[in-house]
Design brief:
Elements lengths: L2 E4 L5 E3 L13 E2 L41 E3 L7 E5 L9 H14 L4 E5 L3 H13 L2 E7 L4 H9 L3 E5 L3 H12 L12 H18 L5 E5 L4 H15 L8 E7 L4 H7 L26 H10 L3 E5 L1 H12 L11 H10 L6 E5 L10
Parallel strand pairs: 5-12, 6-7, 7-8, 9-10, 9-12, 10-11
Antiparallel strand pairs: 1-2, 1-3, 4-5
The structure holds zinc ion.
The site of zinc ion has 7 residues, from loops.
Amino acid sequence: MWTIQCARCRRMDTYHPTQWRCTCGGPWEPPRPIPFDHRAIRPYQPGIWRYTELWPFGQDPITLGEGWTPMIPLSSIDPRLWAKLDYVMPTGSYKDRGTATGLNALREMGVDQVMDDSSGNAGASLAAYAARAGLQATLFAPAHASPGKKAQMHAMGARLIEVPGPRAQATAALLQALETGGIYASHVYNPFVLLGLAAAAWEIWEQLGQAPDAVITPLGHGMLFLGLFLGFEALQAAGYIDQLPRLYGVQAAACAPLAHAFAADLETPSPAEEGNTIAEGVRIPSPPRGREILQAARTTRGAILAVQESEIRIAQEALARQGLFVEPTGALAMTVWPRIARETDRIIVLMLTGSGLKSLHN
Ligand SMILES: [Zn+2]
């Protein structure tokens, strides 16, 4: 029986897999701050499982070796700039930390079939971990998702349901299917996904030997952004860092509900137009955790920014010339660092989230 809390109305409850959100409609999150103690780190365990003592599950986890991704300096571009290579993951995207913790939690609760909706990377990740765990996965993906991502899901034995129309239609189709049963192993609503993503902050802190001044991430559903926030919050609450790194989220201007809400000083984002963008992973017009993302950006003195398609292409090419081959979504952090660098002389970390092999035809 694991305690969770509603991010909206703050109600505490015990988690049950069929209650994928609070009765108020708010998303669940782990009780905060997440307790952190460096003496609980198990450095001989692979990837994120070095932090397993900090979690209520995972003593004998299903794992593909996710996490502890490389951190490299981009000193030929700028001495303050570092990249966290989160595309160096078992399924080629940052999703694997959260899928691993989310799925292990559900599995320990006896779940044997899972469903999710995804533009591609989360679905590919869930397909892989479900295959590894021997669970059946059903995935609702927009028909316009990258062929490479759909091939990944197929190859690993997931049942793939392609939904025509905008990304939001895939979610609608899943919710309709859920009415006749099934477990929504949502990479957005499952609170245990956030525990895994918080490990990205702990990895950065351990690998640098300090907290950076700023971390920049692509921003769609904002799960990595929130995971980093919870992870650094845990380090601060335990007295390991004095100040939270400023968190910056980057959206494609074609679909930027959070950047608009941040600029307009709103508490909650309004649904945006789902415009076409090469950064398909952040094409999320109505992010369920939008309110919490805006709070986290303001609490850390960061920001949420929107960029044009041409800027994304330029950033992707600049990273490729450093030997870093990422998909367009994975290049978003690279687009804005010069703006942020004007305000600091300390370390800035770019989260590079998805492999270029995912989107060869985009
Ligand atoms: Zn609630």
